[in-house]
Write a structure and sequence with these properties.
eight-stranded antiparallel beta sheet; mainly beta
Length: about 110
């Protein structure tokens, strides 16, 4: 259940395999906001999808081809992007790496 005013230490954040070269680490969330980390192996795909949540992402490491609403950009470390709810988007990992996502409101399907 979402909480407010909680802390999560890095060593306590558990990784969950989501298959096909990707794993997810829940960092923190409330009923209004969620942050998680994704590890991608080279060639792993975040298939094009739509959800009602606003999303931002920060590329921590690696190289990704990110497509938002039919436009593709190659993004590396230090890059970021934003996706409005209801917009088709996805990513292909070109070089193994990590990205951090934030969603508003939180995604019940990831809890």
């Amino acid at each position: 259940m979402p909480t407010s005013g909680s802390f999560l230490k890095g060593q306590d954040a558990q990784w969950k395999s989501v298959g096909e070269g990707r794993r997810m680490q829940m960092l923190c969330y409330t009923d209004q906001l969620m942050m998680l980390r994704w590890d991608f192996e080279m060639g792993a795909v975040g298939a094009p999808h739509i959800h009602p949540h606003a999303q931002t992402a920060y590329i921590e490491s690696g190289l990704f081809d990110v497509t938002i609403d039919g436009v593709t950009e190659r993004l590396g470390p230090g890059s970021s992007y934003v996706v409005d709810g209801g917009v088709l988007h996805g990513a292909v990992c070109i070089e193994a790496g990590t990205m951090v996502d934030a969603f508003a409101p939180y995604r019940e399907d990831y809890v």
